[in-house]
UniProtKB/TrEMBL annotation:
Highest taxon, organism lineage: Bacteria
Organism: Dactylosporangium fulvum
Protein known as: Bifunctional polysaccharide deacetylase/glycosyltransferase family 2 protein
Lineage: Bacteria, Bacillati, Actinomycetota, Actinomycetes, Micromonosporales
Domain NodB homology: 76-266
Parts of the chain that traverse the membrane: 587-611, 617-640
Keywords, ordered alphabetically: Glycosyltransferase, Membrane, Transferase, Transmembrane, Transmembrane helix
Family: Belongs to the glycosyltransferase 2 family.
Cross-referenced SUPFAM superfamilies: Glycoside hydrolase/deacetylase, Nucleotide-diphospho-sugar transferases
Any single Pfam family the record assigns to this protein: Glyco_tranf_2_3
Length: 699
């Protein structure tokens, strides 16, 4: 109804929101992929047969025809190899042992670990040791497709290049052992690695230290046979679990093994030194490290965001229910007999309300409160609204016509023309219960009360969208109003049903016209003027809710944007005393936290939920979702019970969490962007169907 200059609604932010969500999901999924990395744990699957017969050594070169050339470490040499690192707990201690004994070794590193601890990779090379590839996330190469095998090797090579500036040529498959244990399907992975330019290094002596068999057992397993004609490649682990036994065993192996020198694999088989990595590989490695670091940070931040938002949501739910329970008890205790509170004037601003206006006016005239005056202000309607009211021929109803000037102007016109000291402001699509006016004005027995909110209910609640809005009115709006009543910080008296002292309206200069939520703006002004604002749950009125998602979007956008305007307009209330201070430090803080900031985190929560379905245990995700939904159902059941409503709509609560909630938080996103850009939304009248009168339940 209110006429405002129309500005184009910002649209580009939807593309940015979608792209941002996709980038966040990609980062989280990458972190989930990286977190799959694990060390040697558990017994490898049993193999049937071997791909090699009588291999000559554990270092394998495979040509394009599939031929295998094997090399071994010469007699008198031992190549200690360490898998699954680098790990800041164990790798430095192993390096200390090697330095103490002037020994060199080969470290087959996991690429994701190199990105986490590049300084350890640099130290390994700086102290004369050698690096090899042990994949990026430690998968069983047999169980993944060829493209994933190549990706695992390439990512690790790039990570090493970024950390050290060097290339690598050696590769060891996760879960591998001696050449005689190389199964045919594992050989296919070895051949794929050879096609990518890597030599595969298996082992002569597998200590199985990952089983933690004891230091003595590890030391025995690492010693070559006394009569061995060649040296040995020894497999140990410096990451992937508790490697304290490996650290102690390394010291003993180095100290107790006589007659052998400790070499790198490349030194043992006569391979030349590695080359300097190319600029491209270094750049790709740095980008990979930054991506992994950012993904880990985002994952941690998202986790704490989920924890914080869940805690706030549960806290809000607990406070709502506790406050509603206390409010209901106080209401029963303070409920008294109906008393006459003076002349009441009901003001109905109407713009193209032909569908419902007759039912609205009849319900007001039929109220059991004596001497009600009804003032209908036709704000330039083009559908014959004023004529419909006149044809009713009701003596206590006056019709005032004016050019279209907006809802606040129509209300102020009605206030100026009304004769009563208590003024009930009503939307043109609202139908009152027979006792609603009488119930609404009873709190004015307290001279400090300047305004009273009634209980708005959704009339057209038979469809799914109607049921969702019905639950929102009962659970969200009405539970909040009970809580605000107790806290003395009611921020909004709904336009559908609210009553004001004329004196209170005079104190705030009538209904303001500079925000889209004139009802919220007016209520906040009344509080700041020193009046109490309370809730009368027994004063029931029925309203027609939007019947389509498009109409719902427009209505909620106006509400949300208008509430932001009103909160900003009254922001100084946080520094005031009395009713204004309660509004500022309780009501405004609550609105900003739970109706503005918390909904803005909801898209992130949903992105994390999609990530959780892919990377977290389904049972855990399902348990969290079911538990939270169950709490919502219980709170809704309690709210319905307080409002003496049937429990039938409860079955729609789970669906509400995955459809309706998203629409509402997108409204907040849209409103926030519009507020930041300085846009302004028109007051758009909703197309009425008359359902408020045709479908009004009886109590």
């Amino acid at each position: 109804m209110a006429r405002h200059a129309a500005h184009r609604t910002p649209r580009a932010h939807w593309i940015l929101l979608l792209l941002g969500g996709l980038v966040l999901l990609a980062e989280l999924c990458f972190n989930g992929y990286v977190e799959l990395s694990a060390g040697e744990s558990g017994t490898p699957a049993p193999h049937v047969g071997s791909a090699l017969t009588d291999p000559a050594g554990p270092v394998l070169r495979v040509d394009r025809a599939g031929g295998v050339t094997a090399a071994a470490v010469p007699a008198g040499a031992i190549a200690l190899t360490f898998d699954d690192g680098p790990d800041p707990r164990w790798t430095p201690r192993i390096l200390d042992a090697l330095r103490e004994h002037h020994a060199r070794a080969t470290f087959f590193v996991v690429g994701s670990q190199v990105n986490r601890h590049p300084e350890l990779a640099r130290r390994i090379l700086a102290e004369g040791h050698e690096l090899g590839v042990h994949t990026f996330t430690h998968p069983d190469l047999v169980s993944v497709p060829v493209w994933r095998q190549r990706l695992e090797l390439t990512l690790t090579t790039n990570a090493i290049a970024a950390a050290t500036g060097r290339t690598v040529r050696l590769m060891r498959p996760p879960y591998s052992s001696t050449p005689s244990a190389l199964a045919p399907d594992e050989f296919a992975a070895v051949r794929a690695a050879a096609d990518a330019g890597y030599l595969t290094v298996l082992t002569d002596l597998d200590t199985e230290d990952w089983r933690r068999p004891g230091v003595d057992a590890i030391v025995r397993a690492a010693r070559p046979e006394p009569r061995a004609t060649s040296g040995a490649v020894v497999m140990l682990h410096d990451g992937g679990g508790d490697r304290s036994q490996t650290v102690e065993a390394t010291w003993r192996i180095l100290a107790e093994t006589r007659g052998f020198r400790f070499v790198t694999v490349s030194e043992g088989v006569g391979l030349p030194a590695t080359d300097v990595a190319g600029t491209g590989a270094k750049a790709r490695g740095l980008a990979l490290r930054w991506t992994q670091t950012t993904a880990a940070w985002l994952s941690d931040a998202m986790w704490w965001l989920i924890v914080l938002s869940t805690a706030l949501a549960l806290l809000r739910l607990a406070v709502q229910v506790a406050a509603a329970r206390r409010h209901a008890r106080l209401a029963r205790r303070l409920r008294h007999g109906r008393a006459y509170r003076g002349r009441v004037s009901v003001i109905v601003p109407a713009y193209n309300e032909a569908a419902n206006i007759a039912a609205t006016v009849r319900s007001l005239v039929a109220n059991d409160y004596p001497g009600i005056e009804v003032v209908v202000v036709d704000d330039g309607s083009t559908d014959g609204t004023a004529d419909i009211v006149r044809r009713l021929g009701l003596p206590s109803v006056r019709v005032i016509r004016q050019p279209n000037a907006g809802k606040p102007a129509a209300l102020n016109t009605g206030i100026a023309a009304a004769r009563g000291d208590l003024l009930v402001l009503v939307d043109g699509d609202t139908v009152f219960e027979p006792d609603a006016v009488g119930q609404l004005v009873q709190p004015f027995a307290d001279p400090d009360v300047g305004a009273v909110s009634g209980n708005t209910k959704v009339a057209n609640r038979r469809g799914l969208l109607g049921r969702w809005q019905h639950l929102e009115y009962v659970v969200g709006f009405n539970l909040d109003r009970r809580m605000f009543d107790l806290g003395g910080c009611m921020p909004t008296i709904p336009g559908a049903i609210g009553a004001f002292r004329r004196e209170a309206l005079f104190d705030v200069d009538g209904v303001p016209a500079d925000t889209l939520a004139e009802d919220t703006d007016l209520t906040m002004a009344v509080l700041r003027a020193g009046w109490r604002v309370v809730y009368a749950p027994d004063a029931v009125a029925w309203t027609e809710a939007p019947g389509s998602l498009r109409q719902l979007w427009r209505q909620r956008y106006r509400w949300c944007y208008g509430t932001m305007q009103a909160a900003w307009k009254h922001r100084r209330a946080v520094l005031e005393r009395g009713g204004g201070g309660r509004l500022g430090r309780r009501g405004l803080v609550y609105l900003v936290l739970f109706q503005m900031l918390l909904p803005l985190t909801a898209p992130l929560v949903d992105v994390y939920a999609v990530y959780g379905l892919a990377f977290l245990p389904w049972a855990q995700v399902a348990a969290v979702w079911c538990g939270f939904t169950a709490l919502q159902v219980l709170a809704a059941a309690y709210a319905l019970r307080l409002d003496r409503e049937p429990m039938g709509p409860l079955w729609t609560v789970p669906l509400q969490q995955v459809v309706y909630r998203q629409l509402l938080y997108l409204v907040v996103v849209q409103s926030s962007v519009a507020a930041l850009l300085g846009g302004r939304q028109r007051w758009q009248a909703m197309a009425r169907t008359g359902l408020a009168s045709a479908m009004t339940p009886t109590r």
